[in-house]
Amino acid sequence: MTPNPDLIPYQKPQPWGMSADMVVPSIDTDDERLWAELSPGVFSRPIHLNTSAGYYVHLLKVTRSGLLQRHRHSGAVHAYVLKGKWRYLEHDWVATEGAYIYEPPGETHTLVVPPECNEMVTLFTVHGALMFVDPQGEATGYDDVFTRLEKYRAHFEKVGLGADYVKQFMR
Ligand code: FE
């Protein structure tokens, strides 16, 4: 019997120089050690930190209502809301559970979690840098995959997993 050709796996080697694939079995974990606190009530869990393409994928969890620092993006952002809701001061829409959001390069915004929401969790893919700015757009600081790496390394060291725990999320 001849096998169904559609079921034959690719027979050649993968290209030289290709990165390894990555599987994170459960992204919305409650293992507290995986969540780095960025500021009071604001946590980030690294999913994929890509230093050669300059982007990072992380889960943002906010367990209080309030503001996240105003910033401008140099690259595109994709977001998927897993829990709760949030909005930007600069837009009239609200991102609710199940929503997908695209943020174009160049956009400046300020994230707000409304008072009635006590926990929001969102998966963000962030390309390039975010620059913290004042209301007139003057830069006051920045964040990118490399500043994130430093934060996660310090966090994993502190909780006993070791700074190099972060390496499994890197490509
Ligand atoms: Fe943003």
Q: List the secondary-structure elements in sequence, H or E.
A: EEEEEEEEEEEEH
Contiguous uncertain segments of 5+ residues? none
Q: Bound small molecules, which ones?
A: fe (iii) ion
- Classification by helices and strands: mainly beta
The general outline is globular
Helix count, DSSP H or I runs of 4 or more residues:
1
CATH class of the domain at 53-164: Mainly Beta
Structure description:
- It contains 1 helix and 12 strands; from the N terminus they run ββββββββββββα.
- With 171 residues, the chain is mostly beta strands.
- The protein has a 6-stranded antiparallel β-sheet with strand order 1-2-3-10-5-8, covered by helices on one side. The chain has a 6-stranded antiparallel β-sheet with strand order 7-6-9-4-11-12.
- Helices cover 8% and strands 41% of the residues.
- The protein has a domain of 112 residues: Jelly Rolls.
- The mean pLDDT is 95.
- β2 and β3 form a beta hairpin.
- Fe (iii) ion binds next to β4.
- The site of fe (iii) ion (FE) has 6 residues, from β4.
Secondary structure elements and their pairing?
Blueprint: E1 36-39, E2 42-50, E3 55-62, E4 66-73, E5 77-83, E6 85-88, E7 94-96, E8 100-103, E9 108-113, E10 120-127, E11 130-133, E12 139-143, H1 145-158
Antiparallel strand pairs: 1-2, 2-3, 3-10, 4-9, 4-11, 5-8, 5-10, 6-7, 6-9, 11-12
The protein binds fe (iii) ion.
Residues 71, 73, 77, 103, 109, 130 line the site of fe (iii) ion.
